[in-house]
Amino acid sequence: MRVIAGRFRSRPLSAPKGMKTRPTSDRLRETLFNVIAARIEGARFVDLYAGSGAVGIEAISRNAEFVWFAERAPEAVKAIRENLAALKISGGYVLEGRGAAVLLEELARRGESVNVIFLDPPYEAEEEYTRTLEFLGTRGLGLLVDDARVIAEHRSKVELPENVGGLERVRVLKQGDAALSFYAVRPED
């Protein structure tokens, strides 16, 4: 696993030991960032269920203004810290070790605004997709700036909902066993 582009291009990243974390493949991460490239420079980016932190680190490498990482698994939190340290990234991010729900509640409470939210829970944790998308489509809409994107990585054979609260799916990209569903705030009628 490596950083795809930007100031940390080609630098290696480590993944948590064990089979509980499934890092986003280099190929899928490259596809993701090709699609959202114009949104990254100066962006406020959220990497939920961050695993190794590769997606958020890719955003930092491509000049995102700030990145929030959320991860609960101790081995994954350790891997994120190690990756950030190895790249000598000492600022411009927050690592929330209590998980996605805690981070989203805190961001909403503080009235933060973000450009991109990426979520990649374990594929088998369907309730995490539901809970996170429902929060973002209802109470979390205030977090999203105009033209923000919420992007969910999931199994390509699993269909996420077209609409969740005030979010609507605007694109699906499938690559092998994985897919990316892109959501935007639904325009008011």
State the fourth-level CATH superfamily of the domain at 1-14 and 45-119 and 131-142.
Vaccinia Virus protein VP39
Shape: globular
- List low-confidence stretches: none
Helicity, in percent? 25-40%
The helix-and-strand class reads alpha/beta
Query: In total, how many beta strands?
Result: 8
CA-based gyration radius: 15 Å
Residue fraction in strands: 25-35%
Tally of DSSP helical segments: 5
Order of secondary-structure elements? HEHEHEHEHEEEE
How is the quaternary structure best described?
single chain
Task: Explain what you see.
This protein is an alpha/beta fold and 189 residues long. The protein has a domain at 1-14 and 45-119 and 131-142: Vaccinia Virus protein VP39 (Rossmann fold), CATH 3.40.50.150. Helices cover 31% and strands 27% of the residues. It is built from 5 helices and 8 strands; from the N terminus they run αβαβαβαβαββββ. It has helices at residues 26-40, 54-61, 74-86, 100-110, 126-137; strands spanning 44-48, 66-70, 93-96, 114-119, 144-155, 163-164, 167-175, 178-185. The protein has an 8-stranded mixed β-sheet, sandwiched between helices. α3 links the parallel β2 (66-70) and β3. It is globular, with a radius of gyration of 15 Å.
Quickly describe the structure.
Helix content is 31%, strand content 27%.
Question: Could you outline the blueprint of secondary structure elements for this entry?
Answer:
Elements lengths: L25 H15 L3 E5 L5 H8 L4 E5 L3 H13 L6 E4 L3 H11 L3 E6 L6 H12 L6 E12 L7 E2 L2 E9 L2 E8 L4
Parallel strand pairs: 1-2, 1-4, 2-3, 4-5
Antiparallel strand pairs: 5-8, 6-7, 7-8
